[in-house]
Specification:
This protein has one domain (3-203). Helix content is 22%, strand content 25%. The protein is built from four helices and nine strands. The protein has helices at residues 3-14, 73-86, 107-116, 137-147, and strands at residues 18-25, 33-39, 42-46, 54-58, 61-66, 91-97, 130-133, 149-154, 198-203. A seven-stranded mixed beta sheet has the order 7-5-2-1-8-6-9, sandwiched between helices. It has a two-stranded antiparallel ribbon with strand order 3-4. The longest helix is centred in the middle third of the chain and has 14 residues, at 73-86.
Length: 212
């Protein structure tokens, strides 16, 4: 799969700055993965049918099902690292999430698990926080609930919300970096083998001055 092409296509189509990009996968090779783009923007909505008063509602995130073949988590992670690197992200965060339908699991774990695959029980002003093109969403959420899942997150500079204020000397003008990404994927622990969910951080950026 080429995640960079998918993200850039969405940027061209939506013409909005990105807050974050995430990828979620269940621990079974060659199953669909879900790429989600979280936008910064607002749409105007009428407060009532009989009034001219309006309010502003956040643009929903875009969740896309990707059906490309993959044989290992390392393949997915390498694609995500390359995409984040070229889009100027400061870092990439990987979460190895335990199954969320288990004894003792917190409610927030279930919410995060559903959101990772473009599903939500939350309604904002009558609308879902996602526009989902994920035909296998229910099956993926059900598998993640029983087997856990992997989740990657980065915040792009190129096409991103903070493109004008970043302080990163590794970036080219325009907020991008030239390939290839210098970091390699690290070993993944299958979520069902974890005592608790685990996070792994890949750092790319370097500030031009030390914080005081």
């Amino acid at each position: 799969m080429n995640l960079l092409d998918l993200v850039e296509t969405q940027l061209i189509s939506n013409r909005l700055p990105l807050v974050a990009v995430t990828l979620a996968a269940v621990p079974h090779a060659n199953t669909p993965v879900v790429l989600t783009m979280h936008w910064h923007g607002f749409v105007e909505v009428k407060l009532t049918e009989d009034s001219e008063a309006v309010g502003f509602q956040s643009v929903p995130s875009s969740a896309l099902q990707v059906n490309s073949r993959w044989d290992s988590f390392e393949e997915l992670e390498n694609d995500m690292l390359e995409t984040a690197w070229e889009l100027g992200a400061w870092n990439v965060e990987r979460t190895e999430a335990k199954p969320f339908e288990r004894l003792g699991a917190d409610a927030i774990e279930a919410t995060c698990g559903r959101h990772a695959f473009g599903s939500s029980t939350v309604v904002l002003d009558g609308d879902s926080p996602f526009v989902s093109d994920v035909p296998d969403r229910d099956e993926l959420v059900g598998t993640a609930a029983q087997s856990g899942y992997l989740h990657w997150l980065f915040r792009p500079v190129r096409g991103g919300l903070f493109s004008e204020i970043t302080d990163d000397i590794t970036l080219q003008p325009g907020g991008y970096r030239n390939p290839p990404c210098p970091l390699l994927p690290r070993p993944v622990t299958r979520p069902t083998h974890l005592r608790k969910s685990r996070k792994v951080l890949y750092s790319f950026g370097r500030a031009s001055r030390l914080a005081m």
